[in-house]
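Input sequence (79 aa), recorded before submission:
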Amino acid sequence: MRGERQVRPGQKLLIGVALARTPRLLILDEPTAGLDAATRARFFGRLAALPAETAIILVSHRVDELSGIVTRTVEMDHG
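Predicted structure, token format:
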């Protein structure tokens, strides 16, 4: 699709490995870029299922998708 990035080779695998390990800290930079809506929904469902002890730092332009799973947001303005 025009305007959407393609999924990098191995992106889904790397995210899957990180989620399977149940990390204490998970840092994700635009993890759903290039994914279709159904895959993004499954991904955010998996994030929501992580233990409460897991801290997640997630960079995204799709703030609306994060509303159900985040406790704090930081929004950059002009940056």
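Checked by second reader. The chain has two helices and two strands.
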